[in-house]
Amino acid sequence: MRNYPPALLEEWMRLYYFAVDADIGSSGVSDHSLAEVRALAGITVEEMDAVVFHDSQTLGGTGVRSAIARRWAAGDASRVMVTHGSTEAIFLVMNALLDAGDEVVVLDPVYPGLGDVVRGMGCRLVPWRLRPDDGWRPDPDALAALVTDRTRMIVVNFPHNPTGTTLTVEEQDALVAVAERAGAWLLWDGAFADLTYDTAPLPDPGLRYARAVSLGTLSKGFGLPGLRVGWCLADPAVLDRMARVRDYLTLHLSPLVELIAERVVDAADRILGPRRAAARRNRQTVDAWMARQDGLIRWTLPAGGVCGFPRLEVPDVEAFCHALAREQRVLLVPGTCFGWPGHARLGFGGAPDVLRDGLDRLAGALRAAAPALV
Ligand SMILES: Cc1ncc(COP(=O)(O)O)c(C=O)c1O
């Protein structure tokens, strides 16, 4: 019997995503229009008109699987499954590989979808805690102390939502070694893989560990969340188990979506580059703004991704975020959606003018909510 907890982050977005002027809470970059994507990826109207809406294949059409394999899976398309966003991939992987009662080590804080599906399946969660006092730095030795031969899966996401922390290549090696020693599945959610600022993107751990399962998406750095395309890279036997779950859920993607996704992946650097450069500038804007807030809000500069997880010096962060959305029309995500009530997720991937406007309104609201501290 499944008992999925409410998806608090999604509920928050349902309340406010469409009801604010300034979104400084989401974890994506500025979204592309179809015209922009067609121009960047060189897709003609004739090519789109030629699409026939037959069924596609369960693991994805040949073209899009090959494009993903060329960029992220050393050319091996047999290791690629294309999914409806990485959200579907998370659900399929967990249902394919885990059973109620399994012990699963999960980062804390973590993108809620990664913990809540496992929790709802009746697995036993062991939190791998990141600490704000350590600048959220993940410590592979702390992970090693949590993993035993009962550990069935280790679930991680780097660069990390919501804190923006990430691993060095050496730390990623240490993480893979911990999983390997225990023979545990390693679920590597690389939703923000291409959004790093000071280091190169981390390699896919599946290239060296057979029980690694990696996820990717066009929703974050590519600015295409509404296209609903993600993927899973795994051993073909794992993909086969996932396909058996998909047969009852979504069957396959649309051939039109697959055409766009294939061409987007082929043009990845052209599409990612400008968004990453804008996010890098925005990150500096937020960092300079933080320094002017008299300690009412503090963050650790994110190393990757487009969000950070500052602490707010207000009496009730969730109530503050409700009022911020309703009265100031600014979207910030309260840490309660991640199980961390004193914090909030701040996203800096959007348009610079919207970000500045949102930060101005947030600064005013912080001062009004915490007058004793100023
Ligand atoms: C770490 C992480 N994984 C997965 C997802 C799901 O995204 P999508 O289904 O749009 O690919 C998100 C979205 O915020 C995320 O932050």
Task: Walk me through the topology.
Elements: H1 8-16, E1 22-23, H2 34-41, H3 45-49, H4 62-72, E2 80-83, H5 85-97, E3 103-108, H6 112-120, E4 124-129, H7 140-146, E5 151-157, H8 169-182, E6 185-189, E7 212-217, E8 230-233, H9 236-246, H10 255-266, H11 268-291, E9 297-298, E10 307-308, E11 311-312, H12 317-327, E12 330-331, E13 333-334, E14 344-347, H13 352-369
Helix pairs in contact: 2-10, 4-10, 5-6, 5-9, 7-8, 11-13
Residues 27, 85-87, 111, 113, 157, 161, 189, 191, 217, 219, 225, 230 line the site of pyridoxal-5'-phosphate.
Number of domains: 2
Q: In total, how many beta strands?
A: 14
Tally of helical segments: 13
**Which ions and ligands are bound to the chains?**
pyridoxal-5'-phosphate
- On the 0-100 scale, what is the average pLDDT? 97
Within the CATH hierarchy, at the fold level, what is the topology of the largest domain? Aspartate Aminotransferase, domain 2
Structural class: alpha/beta
Provide the CATH superfamily of the largest domain: Type I PLP-dependent aspartate aminotransferase-like (Major domain)
Overall geometry: globular
- End-to-end distance: 52 Å
Largest sheet: 7 strands, mixed
Task: Give the SSE string.
Answer: HEHHHEHEHEHEHEEEHHHEEEHEEEH
Query: What strand line-up does the widest sheet have?
Result: 2-8-7-6-5-3-4
Q: What is the CATH level 1 assignment of the largest domain?
A: Alpha Beta
What CATH architecture label of the largest domain applies? 3-Layer(aba) Sandwich
Radius of gyration, in Å, reads: 20 Å
Helix content: 40-55%
Low-confidence segments, ≥5 residues, pLDDT <50?
Answer: none
